[in-house]
Amino acid sequence: xxxxxxxxxxxxxxxxxxxxxxxxxxxxxxxxxxxxxxxxxxxxxxxxxxxxxxxxxxxxxxxxxxxxxxxxxxxxxxxxxxxxxxxxxxxxxxxxxxxxxxxxxxxxxxxxxxxxxxxxxxxxxxxxxxxxxxxxxxxxxxxxxxxxxxxxxxxxxxxxxxxxxxxxxxxxxxxxxxxxxxxxxxxxxxxxxxxxxxxxxxxxxxxxxxxxxxxxxxxxxxxxxxxxxxxxxxxxxxxxxxxxxxxxxxxxxxxxxxxxxxxxxxxxxxxxxxxxxxxxxxxxxxxxxxxxxxxxxxxxxxxxxxxxxxxxxxxxxxxxxxxxxxxxxxxxxxxxxxxxxxxxxxxxxxxxxxxxxxxxxxxxxxxxxxxxxxxxxxxxxxxxxxxxxxxxxxxxxxxxxxxxxxxxxxxxxxxxxxxxxxxxxxxxxxxxxxxxxxxxxxxxxxxxxxxxxxxxxxxxxxxxxxxxxxxxxxxxxxxxxxxxxxxxxxxxxxxxxxxxxxxxxxxxxxxxxxxxxxxxxxxxxxxxxxxxxxxxxxxxxxxxxxxxxxxxxxxxxxxxxxxxxxxxxxxxxxxxxxxxxxxxxxxxxxxxxxxxxxxxxxxxxxxxxxxxx
Length: 613
Description:
By secondary structure, the protein is of the alpha+beta class. Among the domains are: 113 residues, Butyryl-CoA Dehydrogenase, subunit A, domain 2; 141 residues, no CATH class. 50% of the residues lie in helices and 11% in strands. The protein has 19 helices and eleven strands. A five-stranded mixed β-barrel has the order 4-5-9-7-6. Helix 2 runs parallel beside helix 5 and helix 10 crosses helix 16.
């Protein structure tokens, strides 16, 4: 990115920048992950989205955030209509997302954006990554419409597919129906098995639903996939079935559900989230009645990748805002970006952002592999999506907060984008499961669903591609950590449930950093071989050193020697081999696995609680 001349009274802005052209890492990844002919076809659309995100999308998103939706429960005659009134700026955002770029349709309909056939997930999520840097909330309706379509294609009857898929996948905005997924209830957010919504059959065999849904995103949706318990079904998740509930019935009458109110949310203000009561709502069974929870979790897992993409987008926008501000504003006689402590902040934000982008686009490529029939990619996708969602959504909060701190007082003012980025960043770690719940899902995938060996194989293969002598000592650090994770996961069946659950988050942390490091190292080796540039290997080494070793409490995150390379890394200028920390770096000897290790003995004091069995 270009370096402005710093001025003490300057207030630099990103408005008008093309977010794709400013992101050399995204450009490199798209070239690396897409076949050449795919990339050449995709790049004009990425350029167009980057231009929109830095200009019209950003302006519309700010306006929609200031004017959240409202509920119009009754019409002028007093009839119940449950209409969500959306601001014109949000409606224009919808047109851009659903119609202009076809984000919800391109994985299901041929010819979106002129694509021959259905566009790959990788392109879709690269576009979503750019869109999310301007607008966060609307991407929930985009994602749930996309995933509703996917579930109907996989499990819906021929009649349901014929009736609803054409409207869910159209890019004609006036004909579009949006989808959603509603399962959270007062009785159970994460505990879905505690759901109380009941499904009963009429005398003519039609299903009707009775109950409340507590957190209903995209409350104005036309079609909802929801969970309910058929009468007589067993308790817990095994008794839940998936149903399609339309807002309007085929005969044109309003279905029997009410939108009680809209939530007043911290972030994602542009998008309507509400509370719904089913009062005999007509519904259609989707799939087998005893597979509802399993199907819904498949839908949730796809949504988790979209969630992780949005978190990565927030990180990237936060980093871009910080770089533009720090390079364009002067203090104490020099640019802010020259101050050592601020350079350290910027470098850490850059590493987290670049790793997150690499992880989520890598997972999108795995998604394409699964859809192409790869059994190994199916298992990898099952693990990588909660893993990516778990860490990126947590770390996005830190990166967005740091970016606000970089901009200082202006960052706290709603006229600048930082406050909105911070507010939106907090939702990601709650949607589709809180951090603890998702970490336990990562644990379940590793221990019970056969995802450990594919994960070990993927990380090992990536690390094995690295032959650079300067990077090898840090690759060895990653390999030793991988061995530790494998040993720990394989001993989980022998632990008590409390002991095992306490290890879920530390192992998820480390597994994410191992996956991210393996991708960064492999990409770094490729860049070095292609153009004799050690830039990405330097990023990989610094990332591994940051996250795969213990830090002395009084040590700087990055020595001054590393910070000297910040500008070259930001601007993608050639980085020599000498930039890599030497193999005898004293931090190598401070290595310790970040994986939590249980105590080797149990306290024997009479005041100690008994060891769980």
